[in-house]
Amino acid sequence: MTQLLFILTHPPGNSVYAQEAFDAALAGSAFSSIALLFVGAGCLQLIEPKLPIEAQHRKNFQRGFKALPDYDVHDVYACEDSFNQFGLHDQALVMQPTLLTQPDTSALLKASQHVLCF
Amino acid sequence: MNFALNIQGSPYTSNSLWSALNFAKACLNEGHRIHRVFFYHDAVLVANALHAPPQDERNLTTAWQTLGRDYELDLCLCVASCLRRGILNDSEAQRFEKTASNLAPGFNISGLGQLIEASLVSDRVVSFGI
What we know:
The structure holds two protein chains of two kinds. Chain A has helices spanning about 15-30, 65, 80-85, 100-110; strands at about 5-10, 35-40, 75-80, 100, 115. Chain A is α/β, with parallel strands linked by helices. Chain A has a single domain (about 5-115), classed as DsrEFH-like (Hypothetical Protein Ychn, Chain: A), CATH 3.40.1260.10. Chain A is globular and about 40 Å long. By secondary structure, chain B is of the alpha/beta class. Chain B has a single domain, classed as Hypothetical Protein Ychn, Chain: A, CATH 3.40.1260.10. Chain B has a five-stranded parallel β-sheet with strand order 4-3-2-1-5, sandwiched between helices. In chain B, helix 1 (about 15-30) packs parallel to helix 2. Classes of the chains: A alpha/beta, B alpha/beta. The interface of A and B includes residues 4, 20, 24 and 116 of A.
């Protein structure tokens, strides 16, 4: 059973929120079993950055997604409806999440002991 | 029931901290406990001792300090969020060779581990977004 489910809702480019949320998730992985769920504009974090990251004045924190298995994080989900909405199926992604329908998402929420929303 | 609060919104710009304050008061009035209030993202700015809102507006920092004191709440700020946004206690100010510190009394600066610990030991964790 997943102890902590982190729901990630912020897009990567226009604020530090997405990066800080990922920091929180990594901190969680050090203490317990965690899962990540990207929803809405949060799914945009999964796109491979196209501009040189220096031009965006931020860290390429998404590189960390590839290292998630090293942190023993294997459950990475994204909302299928959001993927459709943002047309992400044809995009080059940093990593491929497991896509969830709305009923799947409900089941995931029920199966998680605690939910942290960012 | 034992609650943990995860607050993220900026003071005054967002309603997040007021919503969380009202929620915390309602919890405590109903006899529930709050294990920890964790301030993340822009919410750490509430602990800036230099806030000086107009006199006919409520002071958010004072409101949280009062609640924290009355119920002996652990008002905990994320250190990484604080340093990025210029909220420094005396020791951080010294460490980064700054000329002043600005952490309001009643708040303490700690790490993300405090959010995780609070989430794991509480019955419910409630997030107040930006």
